[in-house]
Amino acid sequence: MRLSSVLSLATFGACALAQSNSTGKLGDAVVVTNNPIGKEAIALLPKTPFFGSLKHNVKGSVKATSGAKGVGVDFEIAFSNLPKEGGPFIYHIHANPVDASGNCTNTLAHLDPFIRGEDPACNSTKPATCQVGDISGKYGKITSDPFKAKFHDDFTAMSEGPGSYFLNRSIVVHFANKTRITCANFFTVSGCSGSNTTTTDSSCQSSLPPTPTNNITPYTGGVGALSVKSLALLPIVALVLAL
């Protein structure tokens, strides 16, 4: 009976851990509070689609503006001329920029500094537990043509440093089956107002597309997965030792 009780408790603890750990290995995404006030960036989709069978590419842009008081980012989405089939379409911020070849595959996976992975699917009611770059997972898929949306995201950075910084990265639009349709780099379109005295960003006045980089460093300030697991298992270990 004692052994069965221990096993039952262990199973319960494992289930509870799985539910609480549907987030990144480094914990939930951190709210960004030091974005340069007044900073704006945009990603403009190219004329030619990456997906070869389309006659015309999706048109549109993703505009990003630093949030009020430097907290998070306000996004403004505008897409049109979408494929007639293959939706609802999804879009994400990817870890790498688009290189000179225009190959969207080279943008690699979603921006994911907390090492969450794509599975299980993002729970839009808990955006902090989603991949930072999973924009449509957090705020909705593309379900109309034309498509427009505005939303605020607390977890993206416009000030260099954290892994959630995205101005040296790209936006990628996909079919529902995740095939990549088109992609574009972000670039800065305005400077900073100077009112955010806590932020110094040398790129505020830059209007050039970002330089490609392959060195994407994950954010390491969260609670490690091993630490969370150890805490969850402590009551079970104590019970076994008491038997």
Automatic annotation (TrEMBL):
Record GO terms (molecular function): metal ion binding; superoxide dismutase activity
Signal peptide segment: 1-18
PROSITE patterns registered for this protein in UniProt: PROKAR_LIPOPROTEIN (PS51257)
Localization per Swiss-Prot or TrEMBL: Cell envelope; Secreted
Official protein name in the record: superoxide dismutase
Source organism (scientific name): Xylaria hypoxylon
Enzyme Commission identifier(s): 1.15.1.1
Primary location class: other
Catalytic activity: 2 superoxide + 2 H(+) = H2O2 + O2
